[in-house]
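Running this now, will post back.
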Amino acid sequence: MRRILVTGGTTFVSRYTAHYFVDKGEEVYVLNRNTKEQVSGVKLIKADRHELGEQLKKRSFDAVFDITAYTGQDVAALWDALGEYGTYILISSSAVYPEDRAQPFTEHTELGENKFWGAYGTNKIEAEAELLKRDPNANILRPPYLYGEMDNVYREAFVFDCALADRTFYLPGDGSMKLQFFHVRDLCRMMERIVEKKPAEHIYNVGNPETVSIKEWVLACYQAAGKTPRFVNVYQDIDQRNYFPFYAYEYALDISRQAELLSDTLPLEEGLKSAFGWYQKHPDQVNRKTYMEYIDENL
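Update: finished.
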């Protein structure tokens, strides 16, 4: 049994991570302010990561999974408060890569501002730098779009809602824009492999080996709900984020380094089926947006 610290533990990635490692029989501690329901089986450290004082100094952890650090200050506050630990893994983002760099992005691609992600991406760059300054042996994972059970972001859930209501789906352009996904379970499996194998590399792009078009993604979401979509292609010069849950930004990550540790990833169709099953039971746990209202009023 390993002692694992998970920052957060109550929303999507951090919640799934806590649940995953509890199920693996690990001793899981979560660090949060206790304002939301906790995962069964975790041990709560109730605190704000910026006001930890001496709470962590006398504790030791085999692994620290920092899911909720978005800035350099977030990383500094936690790291400075830690006592002994083994493996530190920071969940960063593919948003650290500028949109105008050659693709697929590799771990050696120069980092910089991405016009689509703005401060989110540059803050993640600062978080990475702050961690590596303090611990050069720390690990950093850069995922593309994450999905799966416990996802509170209105992406696949939006398409599920359209499918369940038998709505016509309004697709940006011809639907050929490519995206890359990664199931949250595979993210946890990757963290598990790093803790177990302690690889020489410390920065990893992570994701499914293949990209899919947005049309293929919508089709797979409808199929997970047992439906078949009718499409309307939208060519109007409007921001697609008004009616579709992704930016008009196509990108891909080179995940060959990941493949050395984790070569088998969950097929998108299978992952969406499990995500749909979870969503049917927990529709109130997703933060809805007004895509349908915009479509009905403007398209």
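The chain has two domains: 3-147+182-205, 156-180+210-250+267-298. More later if anyone needs it.
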